[in-house]
Give the backbone structure.
Amino acid sequence: MIFDSIQIGRTISKLRREKNMTQLELADRLNISYQAISNWERGISMPDLSNLSELSELWDVSIDEILGNSRAGKILSSISEQRTEEITPQELEKAAPFLKPDQLEQSCDNMKDCLTMQDLVQLAPFISSKLLNESILNAASKGFEIKDLVYLAPFSDSKIIASLLQEYLEKGGTVTYDELIKIIPFLNHKTADYALQTIENDKIGISQLKNITPFVGTDTVSRILERIIDSGRKLNRSDLNYFAPFLNNEAMEKAFRSVFQ
């Protein structure tokens, strides 16, 4: 592990005690809270690059020594000096918790031509939506899996996710119900309806249809519910009350007969 938060915390604790400093004294020197120092030392969080530089100067030790890994120090040094050609996307992902947003943004922008969708899955929580959207469009041309879109959807432009999913399905790709239910809140009705057509009909029952109903069109809900009724499934009043606002006239009549006949 390049960046081991537990080991880094132990090293910071050791160096602080060797300098006979309390957590509060160290916090005052760095102009941060003592709770932050406590979290570092327990491995709950890690200092960012500017904090590491301050610790290095304060204690007259190298950043490598604080991190306990010479490669880790070189990675942060390369990022700090914008020499991103010296690191891999995977190393940038590992370094992300140490970087301020503007440092990470610049590094990602410099490396966006070589970032894959899998890289962006790891970096998404740390970078802006604008850069992420640009990077997704660039990386998608190299290939992606549905699980990548599922993870990236909450962080990116829903129009981009819908467009990529539509393209994926039109090329013969498929999506499972479990995948669709995670991504469907970020899709437009057209793409959601199209995605549903790739799922085997017998995989969607009443409970599954209720989960997706708010996100698809009336005709789609009606078609699936009619298929469920035709298969012999009898609706109850609760089902009817739930689906009624989403059905066309023909499906509503069939649902009504299922309940009261």
Notes: The chain has 18 helices and no strands.
